[in-house]
Design a protein that fits this description.
With about 325 residues, the protein is mainly alpha-helical. The chain folds into two domains: about 240 residues, Alpha-lytic protease prodomain-like; about 80 residues, Cation efflux protein, cytoplasmic domain (Alpha-Beta Plaits, 2-Layer Sandwich), CATH 3.30.70. The protein is built from ten helices and three strands. Helix 1 packs antiparallel against helix 2 and helix 2 packs antiparallel against helix 6. The protein is elongated. The C terminus is likely disordered.
Amino acid sequence: MHTHQLPDWQHAHTFGQHLRRPGERRTLAVIGLNLVTMVAEVAAGLAFGSMALLADGLHMGSHTAALGLSFAAYVFARRLAGNPRFSFGTGKLNAFAGFIGALLLGLFALVMLGGSANRLMNPVAIDFDAALWVAVVGLAVNAASTYILGGGFSSPAAAEDHDHDAHPQHTHGHDHHHDHEDHALRSAYLHVLADALTSVLAIVALLAGKYAAVIWLDPLMGVLGAVLVMRWATGLARSSAAVLLDRQAEPAVVERVKAAIEGIDDSLVSDLHVWSIGPGIHAAIISLVTHHPQPLDVYKAAIPRDLKVVHATIEVDVCPGEIEASARHGHG
């Protein structure tokens, strides 16, 4: 074979990561919305001397920074997709952003928990009217942000279902977007949803404090919100860490790959590794034993396309017994 023929047997390792993902546009839109609101709240807080407005504006700024991390992951993954230093493309930048986002979300929950516990032990006077105004504005912005980002999945509970080990219902079907595996989008979504949750809980607590004098409900709602946000952060950390650590794909995916290979003649899979290398895409290393080896393209074509195995390395071992039997037959 001549070297000029090699390109016919080679392929790129971008695996679609060079394309702009829908989550990138959604995240950028939400960053813009939150930045405008943050600047308005900080300016109003400084102009009117409202600590509540100033604090909410700075709090929104911290979440905008977390959203910026998700957006940066999209941009870098797209621009570096063709860089040969990334063996399987840049898809894991998405999971990395999700994992960092989960850590920030967990830190936010701890701050909420600490602040709420302090308020339970050391109650302070609350300006209910000003605080309610801030909470309502924050809820409106976060509700809009949640709507923009929530196109890929309907709720954190639905997203957390993907952390389980077996999901046969998610491995069938035709070519479709795998937004539930977009950890950068999920991180951004959970950050704005956490903000929306705290706004709702704050409104409930403030109304109860204003009209029923139930002051202790405000910090108690903070504790409840912190626990729920920590649960979301844990789920996101688990799913993104699984990608970063090359955890074996869901059993249903692995079994379908194995069944597809073993459906070819008398092939038996002796070793199989399937793992995620980006949102909705997998790589596989397959070792098989057979009496009747086929061209590698036959084995690759047998893998169901909806599993999105974009890079497969296949090792074929011919059963020694068959070789010995053929040799004896030839000498006879």
